[in-house]
Amino acid sequence: MESHMTIARPLPDYLVKRYHGWKATSYAENSAWYRKLADDGQHPRAMVISCCDSRVHVTSIFGADPGEFFIHRNIANLVPPYAPDGNQHGTSAAIEYAVTALKVPHLIVIGHSSCGGVRGCFDMCEGHAPALEEKSSFVGRWMDLLRPGYARLPEGTEAERVAALEKQAVLVSLENLMSFPYVKEAVEEGKLTLHGLWTDIGAGGLECYDSDRGDFVPV
Amino acid sequence: MESHMTIARPLPDYLVKRYHGWKATSYAENSAWYRKLADDGQHPRAMVISCCDSRVHVTSIFGADPGEFFIHRNIANLVPPYAPDGNQHGTSAAIEYAVTALKVPHLIVIGHSSCGGVRGCFDMCEGHAPALEEKSSFVGRWMDLLRPGYARLPEGTEAERVAALEKQAVLVSLENLMSFPYVKEAVEEGKLTLHGLWTDIGAGGLECYDSDRGDFVPV
Amino acid sequence: MESHMTIARPLPDYLVKRYHGWKATSYAENSAWYRKLADDGQHPRAMVISCCDSRVHVTSIFGADPGEFFIHRNIANLVPPYAPDGNQHGTSAAIEYAVTALKVPHLIVIGHSSCGGVRGCFDMCEGHAPALEEKSSFVGRWMDLLRPGYARLPEGTEAERVAALEKQAVLVSLENLMSFPYVKEAVEEGKLTLHGLWTDIGAGGLECYDSDRGDFVPV
Amino acid sequence: MESHMTIARPLPDYLVKRYHGWKATSYAENSAWYRKLADDGQHPRAMVISCCDSRVHVTSIFGADPGEFFIHRNIANLVPPYAPDGNQHGTSAAIEYAVTALKVPHLIVIGHSSCGGVRGCFDMCEGHAPALEEKSSFVGRWMDLLRPGYARLPEGTEAERVAALEKQAVLVSLENLMSFPYVKEAVEEGKLTLHGLWTDIGAGGLECYDSDRGDFVPV
Q: Which residues make up the binding site for Zn(2+) (chains A, B, C, D) (predicted)?
């Protein structure tokens, strides 16, 4: 196992202990399922695109077991437009794999309250975050994806507009998903349904985008 | 909440039911903690870079609660080299945010057995997956990141070489992480430690890269 | 560093050695986290009130890492009633600090089997421990706090009654906690939840007080 | 198990899971020792007086196993002077029990860097914390114990003086310990030794009070 990287460190003690605890309980009670998942491969019921934020636990919220959700997590749960330009697109790779190889029947985009990435985008679009506008800012260039959402924010207080932008991050992603030819085809053939959610971390709330009303409504 | 996207669908019933169950139990038991996390913001102890694979549950393995891990998940837990070229780099954005804004003290890259992305990379590098070599293949272009790992695979059976490539995905990522100036600086200042893990899904095993031995060893 | 106290002694050798071992391993693996905790301050998820008893290791039981629990330990895990009389109340000071300054979302009182303090209280209330009834007995005066718990013990064998008194120590403390105005307010606003536990040292058991059943039940 | 307290809540999920993990591993591997501790009672080698601060883990630092340390934790690791006035003194009760009933051979007072209680005392003594001076402030009245330490602080920058006050908290406690007749007697008979420590949380440092030099020195 050759490598020029020599700086990896041992895992902190308490994580080692917790792992051994998991192995002796949750894993032991469920080992036949894990073995089957390893032998047969995964057959997830859904792909979930969620934020990296440590407070968003989509597996907890939906009581998901191992094997259930194929999960991509990035800053602000964003999907870029389809752009097969030969460059690296990690999010697009995950979508391509889930839809064309795993053929997931559901694709859920979930946003959340107090999103740091969305907040940064808001400040940048308002002209208050010059550092994010620099070419070298990965967060800034990533949040450019949400500029179309900012452009259609309604009037309101700052807090209202930031919250609306969090929901726009879900809608922009859903729109961009439809620019992927295999997503569009699967949706039109009834083999895939898209879902847009937004969760309120503090209140434990969950809202789902209702296409008919054109708004998010509590689940 | 205006949008041109009108195809989002309601959440399947069983997910709605599980959400309501979570709200009435896990959330209710822990609501004060969620409120505090919402009010005070997150202070995660670690960033974890994991695969999207539905069988990898890093929060379960480590008994993690909401707020503990900032998690980025992509195909094959890969980190690209530092490239501030003004293009969109979702993984790099997540790393930038975790290290410079959240100042996480640990950064853990975790690979796993039976990784579909790594398998595809292996086949592509062996010349057996022409579809992945096309410019339009997001998965193929993403897995190009792992070509340096393929180049240094030891001799062995195909199964051995594929497993070794899964671990190379962790090592290549750790190496690329050090090409980010703020990661390198934080590591050298003792404010950040990097950790490389690999988990065997079926057996529930966990191995940690040991820089001294130059190999992964069971935790 | 002037002091009139000149009788402090060097640390025993084996403790010095263990400290150096910890520094080179657990600390080294986790040093970035310790530095962050030192720089950012603590954000504990819970206050725990536990007995001083050497056999009760709440951090082990819950796989807690540094920074997770704000822990007050006194004889028999007792909380006195709210009494802002200008005197020194160490337990009340710890509660005031945790709830009003740190704003902990959980407050856990944990009792245990074979509690020497509770045993002493039982003997004293039965009239068999005159030394504890003396004004100068700090243990006796401290255990007076548990007299209301003794008053409502059910009939039973002595062993049953002593074990019931250990659990009363938890309940009396929970009741007294609610006499602190800021505790009551935080509980009523959903910003703080109280939890009552009792652990069986020999059997490694853990029971949680269930308000609906009015009894402790295994976790 | 009668009680008028009906507001206790279930334990959060992840703590329940971690407990079960501990039970199946650490406890299972050590159950004979736990059973012996339960049957024979505790015979701790030392009493430790430490701060409630979540970042101070004296059992980790000294690799302590269950049964090893009888631990009292309060705000700023303070010991009040001996005062057998018939009022409740939780710290004094813990000391009385450890020295007269358990007859511990070592008594260790350990202070630490970034202590919020000491900082509050410093601000109060400088006249900058009127809230802490109110009769109803439990933290303020508790920190009054450290006023003699403030009175003998050397000149210096604020940071130096606060750090010196953290060490004074250890020295004042050691002095007050000697006002307990059974502590003094045990020390003079060579049955008990006192130790004063101070730990630097971020750096993982440990210093021990050296009576000859009249200062703390690295262990």
A: 51, 53, 112, 115
- The structure tokens listed for C172 are 């009396």
Residue C4 resides in a domain = no
B63 touches chain A (CB under 8 A): yes
Asked whether residue C17 falls in the same domain as residue C116, the answer is no
Identify whether residues A20 and A94 lie together within a single domain: no
- Up-side HSE of residue B115: CA atoms within 13 Å toward CB? 34
Please give the residue of chain A at the shortest CA–CA distance from D13. A60
Q: Given C31, C32, C191, which is nearest B35 (Cβ)?
A: C191
Cα-Cα-Cα-Cα dihedral sign, residues A63, A65, A66, A72: negative
Q: Interface pTM (ipTM) of the complex?
A: 0.96
pLDDT digits (tens, 9 = 90+) for C162-201: 999 999 999 999 999 999 999 999 999 999 999 999 999 9
| Same-domain status, C100 and C171 | yes
Domain that holds residue C64: 42-218
**Chain C contact probe: residue of D4, D6, D15 with most C CBs at under 10 A:** D15
Verify that B33 and B74 share a domain, yes or no: no
Is residue A35 located within the same domain as residue A46? no
Q: Tokens for D29?
A: 């591997």
Let me know if residue C111 belongs to a domain.
yes
* Chain D touched by A57 (CB under 8 Å): no
C and D: number of Cβ contacts within 8 A? 332
Please tell me the distance from the alpha carbon of residue B123 to that of residue B132, in angstroms, as a whole number. 9
In this structure, the answer to whether residues D29 and D133 fall within a common structural domain is: no
**Residue A35 forms contact with D (CB below 8 Å):** no
Chain C residues inside the 8 Å CB shell of D204? 23, 27, 31, 34
pLDDT value, residue C86: 95
D103 and D131 inside one domain: yes
Cβ D65 vs Cβ A57: under 8 Å: no
The amino acid present at D25, given as its one-letter code, is: T
Closest-CA distance, B3 to chain D, in angstroms, reads 38
B187-205: pLDDT as tens digits: 999 999 999 999 999 999 9
Q: Quick check: is C180 in a domain?
A: yes
Q: Structural domain tally of chain D?
A: 2
What's at A79, amino acid-wise? V
